[in-house]
Amino acid sequence: MHQGSGILSPRQRRFAWLGFLLAALQAPVSAWLVSDESWLFSVCVALMVATVIIADDAARRRPAGAATGD
Fold first, then answer.
1. CA angle, corner 64, sides to 58 and 7, nearest 5?
2. In this structure, how many other beta carbons lie within 10 angstroms of the beta carbon of residue 31?
3. Which of 35, 36, 41, 58 is 20 to 30 A from 7, comparing alpha carbons?
4. Where are its TM segments located (predicted)?
5. What is the pLDDT of residues 2-44, one digit of tens each?
6. Residue among 18, 43, 45 nearest 31 (CA)
7. What is the largest CA-CA distance in the chain?
8. pTM for the full model?
């Protein structure tokens, strides 16, 4: 059984993981350094990138000939 291809290329997937890790690591550092709540922006960006990575995982695990639910 062949698996479907994801929505990201392997290179884009690596950059997505790098972006997720950098945003996730920046949030606690900026929360410690800055007195306002601007660190929440880093959390939101990390969550959006994580959503794309999860969607890519779901697309990769779907069999190649599977219907999209239409």
1. 45
2. 16
3. 41
4. 15-33, 39-55
5. 565 788 999 999 999 999 999 999 999 988 998 888 889 989 9
6. 43
7. 53
8. 0.77
